[in-house]
Amino acid sequence: MANLSDMQLILTGAITEAIRARHASIDVDHLLMGLVSAGGPSAALLAGQGVGLAELRTAARRLERDDLIAAGVEPPAPLPDRDLTPTQTYELLRRGDWDFAPEAKQLAKAITVGPLDDREVLAAALEDPRAAEFLGRAGAAPEVLRAALAMGDLALPDQDRPRGEIAVEKLITAPMDQVWPLLADPAARLTWDQTLSDTVVAEDGTLEQTVRGAGRRAVVPHRLTSVDPPADGRARVTWQETYGAGGSELDLELTEVEGGTRIRLVRRLSEPRNLLQRVSRLWSVPFLRGGLGIMAQELNQAVADAQTRS
User: Which entry of 61, 145, 213, 242 is 20 to 30 Å from 44 by CA?
Assistant: First the structure.
């Protein structure tokens, strides 16, 4: 079952794709790319037909070109996609003044109303002729998608975690060998993880992040403590983050699946040392879980960027 943060991921992903393509408004294709980049059940359905984020981006460029030709306009030479750092993208997202194209408003309403599952967004898209055409151009079969949606449950597994652990599982619509390079190299994490602003790579590979607040400045080290390269369809990296007397551990676990790579992000929190920390833990968990979802989406987008460039 989806939650508010899942819907926010779809909209955030759509805006990011519009920024990347230098578009001034959010259209149907951006919303569908946001849906896939969120890595939920709809992404798994499309990945089963060989359609991931990179394929949707290619289809969007072709559709834009064909629309111009149909209108009697000679398509200009395509501009390169905007190459922004995660921090630059975040600043653009914060503007909050993005408009929806007329054709996209109905589908956007299906997202902002907050359906119980992101497959309801896909179902709404399939009722939109332009969205269905776009998915078809990307290689999907709308009638097969409708049949799969009618069959029901395709929810991602959600296992109970030990106390002090927060877990999110998403789908990266690319094979593991294209995902792994962005996880195995500490410096590569800076290219897609927007939480690591104001961070440098030390000689030993530690990511040193400068944080400021209440007139103070501190350096938070992020150390890659464990690397299990791909073997038998699985891989994993573990990061240790230390701040003050506490810290947390971040596991990124990869599993090869049909149509891409399943990623499970697990945040293990240090034991609270006092009552205040126990209370703050209660309200911080939803935000931390949402942050893991954003991290998975950013990785999905970075992998698609690499696919597009290759």
Answer: 61
